[in-house]
Every structure is written in C-alpha cells, then in structure tokens.
Design brief:
The protein is elongated, with a radius of gyration of 20 Å. It contains seven helices and ten strands. With 239 residues, it is an alpha+beta fold. The structure holds zinc ion.
Length: 239
C-alpha cells in the first residue's frame, strides 16, 4: 500500500529512536515490501533494507494518514494517504546491502514445500556445540520458527532442545523441521491445534506422563519447554 511512495518516517518509541531509523529513512522512496517467514523486508531506494521480525507480540497496522493513537509505536511510515504503524518490540535492523539481508536469512519454514535440505546445510555449517533448541530460533538457519513451534516440533520429533547439533542426526533434524512446517501451516490456515509442551510446565506429558519442564535457553533466554521423559539427552538444566 505504501510501496512506490516517499515516506515520512518517525520512531516514537525510545528503543527504536536510538537506532536512528528516522534520520536514515525519512524522505526515501519505499521500493518494495516482501515477507520472508515472519520477517518483513522493506526495501528503500539506495539499497537500504529494513528488516522487522515480529516475534510473538509485534504487529503492523495500516491506518489512514493522521490517525490518532494511544501509546508509542516503534515505527510510523507515513505515505500520502496511509500510514503503517509498527507496535511492540520487534527486531528492527537496517542494512545497506539488500541482497546480503536476504542471503543471511535461512529458508522460509512456511514455503510449500519447505527446502529442508537447504536448512540442514545451514544447520551443519553452524557451530556443532550449539543447542538445537537455540539454533531453531536463529533466523540465519531457518526463518520463521517462533518459540511455540520450536517447543512443539521438538516434542513431536522426541528431540530435547538441550541436545547439541553435533549429537542430532540429519533425520532427527529433518523431522523437527517438517513438523514445524506442518504445524505452522495449519496455524496459518486458522486451525487451532492441541499444545503438548508450550506453556504446560508442571503438567503431565500427554505421551508419557512425565512432568513437563521449562527453562530459559540461549542468549535471549527465550523459554524452552520439554518433556524430560520422551525428549532425553543434552545438557538439561538442573532442577
Ligand atoms: Zn513425554
């Protein structure tokens, strides 16, 4: 809706303001908008690409220009008739080389069919001592897997999030990725599915009855959920 226009760019939220996006983007022509998994790539003239990853809470809304609103959105892109407003702490990155941004993103988990072989290649090129649960959220390896689907697909394939990439076979990894694809496609189609581990810490595993656990994982300490009974191995955190 805004592509092809010169935009006024504001960053009302202080955490977005520090990135100086308005200084760098205001007045530039927005050439195109592309979705890759949960990433939205906004290409501006001069080869600048803004990547926004929505995680769980981020939302873009398109409103008539000049709409009143309560609160501080991260980003406002204002065109002639409409403005796109980004709410709630997403990942925002600005890069000068558009091709590099796309190249750095892993294959899209929602693609039909998903390119599992290309994903495996990227996982195998990553440090082998990385935990598989952490690696699944790395957008450079596969783009679009959110924290819910990380937890559910690992449970589905009986792989512990704490196992190291070195100890997970290609077949196991492919099973996790295939499961994430199927679950996420189903979710995109609007079908609600039963959750097995996500936000079920302290409750019994529907498969084996063991009590589900949760613990922060990775640098961002996103919460991992797993069943210690049917997802064994790895450096499981102590109780
Ligand atoms: Zn279990």
């Amino acid at each position: 809706m805004l592509a092809g226009q010169r935009l006024e760019v504001e960053t009302p939220h202080p955490r977005a303001a520090v990135k100086q996006l308005s200084e760098r983007l205001d007045g530039l022509l927005l050439e195109s908008v592309e979705a890759v998994g949960k990433n939205l790539l906004l290409r501006f003239e001069g080869g600048l690409v803004l990547r926004s990853h929505l995680r769980m809470t981020g939302r873009w809304r398109v409103e008539p220009r000049g709409s009143t609103r309560v609160g501080r959105p991260w980003l406002v892109l204002r065109g002639e008739e409409h403005e796109a407003v980004l709410w709630n702490g997403p990942v925002l990155e600005l890069d000068r080389d558009g091709a590099a941004v796309t190249r750095r993103l892993g294959p899209d988990i929602l693609a039909s069919p998903p390119d599992v072989a290309a994903m495996l290649e990227r996982f195998r090129a990553a440090p082998a001592e990385r935990e598989v649960g952490d690696a699944l959220l790395d957008q450079r390896l596969v783009s679009g897997i959110g924290n819910i689907w990380k937890a559910e697909s690992l449970w589905d394939a009986r792989v512990s999030p704490w196992r190291l990439l070195a100890d997970v076979t290609d077949d196991e990894l492919a099973a996790v990725l295939e499961s994430a694809h199927v679950k996420m496609r189903t979710s995109v189609d609007g079908t609600r599915t039963l959750r097995h581990v996500y936000r079920r810490a302290g409750r019994a595993c529907r498969r084996c009855g063991t009590v589900i656990r949760s613990h922060g994982q990775g640098d961002a300490a996103r919460v991992a959920y797993w069943c210690p009974g049917c997802q064994r191995g790895g450096r499981e955190p102590q109780l």
